[in-house]
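All the exercises in this workshop are built on plain-text protein records. Instead of coordinates, the fold is spelled out as a row of discrete tokens. Once this layout is familiar, the rest of the handout is easier to follow. The record below serves as our worked example for the rest of this section.
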Amino acid sequence: MQKDTRNFVEGLLRDYPRIPRYIHRKEQEIKYPFRAYRDDNVGGGQGHSNNDSPTERIVFNIAGCDVIEGFKKQRNAISKALKKSDPVFVKVVERYYFDEYNTLSISAIGVEYGYSSRTLYNERNKLFENILIHLGWNHVIERDAILNEKSDRTAL
């Protein structure tokens, strides 16, 4: 796996605990939009010819929001990938990626849970690939494999 891909997936994992907050904030922005130059005085407020109720409009806007759907897709992809992983490895992931105050390396945490460095990195790479697959980014995995083949050939 290429370093840029690995860094991207690590960023997604670090964001995972904050995704509900991101979704809530975007929903609030849709429910209560800020209008800087809105005039609620006589004749300057909302038009009265709306056929849809404001509640329906808000629900449709939230349901059709690509940002919220993207966050949900990210959350679901990580959840599914974690469910496929070894439960002990999930604890390592939670300590390393989800704990804001973590000061240990992933290797140090892995040793605490009985993982060798090689096994730990193999598990991590499997997790990253599962996340990319659940996001529908199989082409990135293929691209990385092709680039790794090319770099292996040039090293010979």
